[in-house]
Design goal:
The chain is mainly α and 388 residues long. The protein is built from 15 helices and seven strands. The strands form three sheets. It has a three-stranded antiparallel beta sheet, with no helix packed on it. A two-stranded antiparallel ribbon has the order 3-4. The protein is globular. About 1% of the residues have low confidence. It is a multi-pass membrane protein.
Length: 388
């Protein structure tokens, strides 16, 4: 009995001889998926999450600013402009009186209002002051080593460029926000490195060894988690010596944030290891003589990497918010260090905010970075879950 054409199975048969060194996909498209590594599969699925990809690009742009904040900032963040205290933001224009001029600003004129006792600024729209690019401006020490004065954009000659206004001392707010990016974003990375190192170490020991080791670690975690987080932050931050240098204060705040954030990750690692340590591949590794450290690092932890990725991307914004909150309350970083929290500390005066709302501009980068980390974490978790 012969099969008809319609009854024959529809499958692909490659007539070429077998080549063990062949790397191209053979036949069907699914073979590329079968040959791909778990990281490649995760990347393919992550690319389809447009919101997460956009969030990742935003974070890359923010972190790309860190090495070049002095070049990007138009002014030295500590420079004071005595004639422009609480100056409102200036707008950038391209066309002046129907003619293309390029990016330019209009000059300020102020009068002191004797009734309200503050300065009233008026814009002189008859003059166009073009901005300068790749120019020489305020001097600075690049990375604290090279003395230079090159900037990406500079204010006009004999003019000003306060795109986000100035503060009570006449300092350009945009330059200070750009400079604060380095500290605020670095706190998150260093803090999460400390937190992850402790969480993976203690959680791995508790989950894999069990017994009295697990009991001791769990009791320590319960004690730490029972303490109110914000008052503990405040107490430890207030305990930092006031005569410490800004660098020591920075590392002190980072250690505080990292030491208080690891218990949640350690408990999650422990619970996952308790389930995975009974798997067959763990038993096989033990029979082959693998050490406990190798089993935890090479076999167990990679199997819940998606949870670790999500925890990292969600913990970094909590670190940033923690530093911002402590600096806002005056217990974190202090001037002359510039961070987003230090800048918001100057916006505590309700009257000043009501009269000069641009002082709240440092809130915008905090909100953008925190939302970007949350969207990126959701995308990475969804992309990694099916493959680990």
């Amino acid at each position: 009995m012969t099969l008809g054409l319609r009854d024959r199975p529809h499958h692909f048969v490659d007539p070429a001889p077998f080549d063990p060194g062949r790397t191209e996909p053979v036949g069907a498209e699914s073979s590329a998926v079968d040959r791909a590594s778990s990281w490649r599969l995760t990347w393919w699925k992550f690319r389809k999450h447009r919101v997460a990809v956009a969030a990742g690009l935003i974070l890359i742009a923010f972190y790309a600013l860190i090495p070049f904040v002095e070049v990007i900032a138009p002014y030295n963040p500590a420079k004071r402009h005595g004639d422009y205290l609480y100056a409102p933001p200036q707008s950038v224009h391209l066309f002046h009186e129907g003619r293309f001029v390029g990016p330019y600003t209009h000059p300020y004129h102020f009068t002191f209002n004797l009734e309200t006792f503050h300065r009233d600024y008026t814009v002189d729209r008859t003059k166009a002051q073009p901005l300068r690019f790749f120019c020489r401006g305020d001097s600075y020490a690049f990375w604290g080593v090279i003395d230079t004065d090159w900037h990406l954009v500079c204010p006009p000659e004999n003019g000003t460029m306060f795109l986000l206004g100035t503060d009570r001392l006449g300092r350009d707010l945009l330059s200070r926000i750009v400079s604060g990016t380095r500290i605020s974003l670095t706190v998150g990375l260093v803090g999460i490195a400390v937190s992850f190192a402790l969480g993976l170490f203690f959680g791995g020991l508790a989950g894999y060894l069990g017994g009295w080791v697990d009991n001791v670690i769990q009791r320590v975690i319960e004690i730490l988690r029972s303490l109110p987080e914000l008052p503990l932050w405040l107490a430890l931050s207030a305990a930092l010596p006031p005569n410490w240098s800004p660098i020591l204060v920075f590392f002190g705040i980072t250690l505080i944030l990292g030491l208080l954030d690891w218990p949640g990750l350690a408990r999650a690692v422990r619970s996952k290891l308790l389930a995975l340590r009974e798997e067959d591949y763990v038993r096989a590794a033990e029979l082959m003589g693998a050490s406990k450290t190798r089993i935890i690092a090479r076999h167990l932890i990679p199997n819940f990497m998606s949870h670790l990725i999500a925890s990292a991307t969600l913990s970094i914004p909590s670190m940033i918010l923690g530093e911002t909150a402590l600096s806002f309350l005056g217990l974190g970083l202090r001037p002359p260090v510039t961070s987003w929290g230090v800048l918001l500390n100057e916006a505590q005066n309700l009257a000043a905010v009501q009269l000069h709302p641009w002082l709240l501009a440092p809130i915008l980068p905090v909100v953008i970075v925190v939302l970007a980390f949350n969207f990126l974490g959701d995308g990475l978790r969804d992309a990694a879950d099916p493959y680990h």
